[in-house]
Amino acid sequence: MASMNAPIFSSAHPADQLAEFSDAESALARIREIYNASVGAVRARFDAFASGKPLPSAAHACYPYLGISVNIETMVTDSRPSWGTVAYPGVYGTTVTRPDLLADYYRDQIERLMRYHRVPVVVGLSRRPIPLPFVIEASTTDISYTQRANSRRRSCCRS
């Protein structure tokens, strides 16, 4: 039986600032932290742009990344579970969004993956930017013609 200390192959995950977690709640807390920081950076740049203020420096405002590495020693070949498992040894990962809405689902998935395969998960900053429309709830109809024209000359959210 493999232990939770099995190698995670973190260099194979397409993300930065990776941290390893052996409990779902800590992994979820890091997901929230990354998501909130990225959303905050996008909002700050948009607010500055909309009010005509100088833009803050470009931020690396990307989705959180959740990954798991399963090797042959931690692979379980029981085909009964239909979720919370992986079918083959390898490196798996995805971006995650809206932990405020999906926390229970993420927690269940993370717990199942770690329990079933007996390996930790990694959480980090993906390389997938969060698009402005997915962050800004406020209406942009009050942006003036001049601000709209200026938006064509400068980007409010590019890094």
| Helix content class | 25-40%
Q: How many alpha or pi helices? A: 3
| CATH class category name | Alpha Beta
Arrangement of strands in the largest sheet = 1-4-2-3
Q: Which residues form runs of ≥5 with pLDDT under 50?
A: 1-9
What does this protein look like?
- With 159 residues, the chain is an alpha+beta fold.
- It has one domain (10-151): AMP nucleoside phosphorylase, N-terminal domain (amp nucleosidase, domain 1, 2-Layer Sandwich).
- It is 33% helix and 19% strand.
- The protein is built from 3 helices and 4 strands.
- It has helices at residues 24-50, 99-117, 145-151, and strands spanning 15-21, 62-70, 90-95, 121-129.
- Helix 1 packs antiparallel against helix 2.
- Residues 1-9 have low confidence and may be disordered.
Quick summary:
The chain contains three helices and four strands.
